[in-house]
Amino acid sequence: MDPIRNPYAPGAGQRPPELAGRDEQLRAFDVVLERIARGRPERSLVLTGLRGVGKTVLLNALRSAAVRRGWGTGKLEARPDQGLRRPLAGALHQAVRELGHPQPDDVDHVLGVLKAFAQREAGTGARLRDQWNPGIDAPAVKGRADSGDIEIDLVELFTDLGGLAADVGKGVAVFLDEMQDLGPDDVSALCAACHEISQSGLPVIVVGAGLPHLPAVLSASKSYSERLFRYQRIDRLARPEADRALTAPAEDEDAAFAEDALRAMHAATGGYPYFIQAYGKAVWDLAPRSPITAEDVAVAAPEAEAELAVGFFGSRYERATPGERDYLRAMADAAVAIAERGEEEVDDIGSVPTADVAAVLGKKPQSLSPARDALLKKGLIYSGERGRIAFTVPHFGRYLRDQG
Where do the coiled-coil regions begin and end (predicted)? Predict the structure, then answer.
């Protein structure tokens, strides 16, 4: 098969040629945009799921839908070591520019509030060289979004942004990836701002994406967050959708998959979108001709697995310390032990009791808390329920066992 015409795209956050299985989310978001445009109340949106299910791709697709409707949009990625002010200011600066408000004075006022919000991170009385300049020409507005209390400031900022958008009959949407990495104060402030905007009926929404435990993070910050956001779990693709993710791009290049090849591909990928793209690319490059067969899948599987071992699994494994790696391997071994005992069904993410991990390592659970907490902060594992942990990356346990 011609590698130049290979349609598959196994890149981080890179949109696949066929965005299969996400029609429901796209339609629901169109309804949200239309309701807000008509002044109807709507909740902000939170997407949750494992690594590799396409949350970032879907987040970008939703943003494109907002852009097509003339909304002001901005996107940022939360980081554990970074506060919210600077990246949010950069994202909202772009959103204001996209709105195309006809009154320069009104725009400059909101930009001035945005600048004050951003510069407040350096603290009052900071030297000029320590102040961050967000690239906004308008002078900072004093006494608005610059109190130093992130919750107060964010409410004031969103209120002014919402008013600017309402003037032109549009809205502002903030797209926030890796939302679980926000600090506690920033999470609380974001919830409070969304709550205030919802009550005021202003056209501003937040669309967040994060790991499966994100709802628990939000709930721990504000008890009303369960009613504040519309939660959507993004999961692996069902067999028909996984097949379409493979066959539709192939048909565009005058190629096809045999039925046995599709069965083999689904068995290998488990329906996870990132794996579908990785295996699709490897199979296309190595298959001699169309239609692609199960034998072609078997030949290409080692190359696909080697690519995943380096770019998907290995890059995350390398972030762990030796002690943390021992904990990860113990999780994988505990899942195998549970399966052999037949006590419960073991899922693809290797969800296991923390007590079983401690038993594998021959240590008390309390002594392993530092390693577990570090892995939680690094986003390599998560706790979906008390006393249990799981990998954030599907098939990670299998990768660890293959490494020996």
Answer: none
Cα separation of 283 and 280, whole Å? 5
Task: Label each residue of the chain as H, E or C.
Answer: CCHHHCCCCCCCCCCCCCCCCCHHHHHHHHHHHHHHHCCCCCCEEEEECCCCCCHHHHHHHHHHHHHHCCCEEEEEECCCCCCCHHHHHHHHHHHHHHHCCCCHHHHHHHHHHHHHHHHHHHCCCCCHHHCCCCCCCCCCCCCCCCCCCHHHHHHHHHHHHHHHHHHCCCCEEEEEECHHHCCHHHHHHHHHHHHHHHHHCCCEEEEEEECCCHHHHHHHHCCCHHHHEEEEECCCCCHHHHHHHHHHHHHHCCCCECHHHHHHHHHHHCCCHHHHHHHHHHHHHHCCCCCECHHHHHHHHHHHHHHHHHHHHHHHHCCCCHHHHHHHHHHHHHHHHHHHHCCCCCCCCCCEEHHHHHHHHCCCHHHHHHHHHHHHHCCCEECCCCCEEEECCCCHHHHHHHCC
How many whole angstroms separate alpha carbon 108 and alpha carbon 101?
A: 10
Q: pLDDT digit of tens for each residue in the chain (404 aa)?
A: 899 999 998 877 788 889 999 999 999 999 999 998 888 888 999 999 999 999 999 999 999 999 999 999 999 999 988 999 999 999 999 999 999 999 999 999 999 999 999 988 755 554 544 456 667 888 889 999 999 999 999 999 999 999 999 999 999 999 999 999 999 999 999 999 999 998 889 999 999 999 999 999 999 888 778 888 999 999 999 999 999 999 999 999 999 999 999 999 999 999 999 999 999 999 999 999 999 999 999 999 999 999 999 889 998 999 999 999 999 999 999 998 888 887 666 666 678 999 999 999 999 989 999 999 999 999 999 997 888 999 999 999 989 988 86
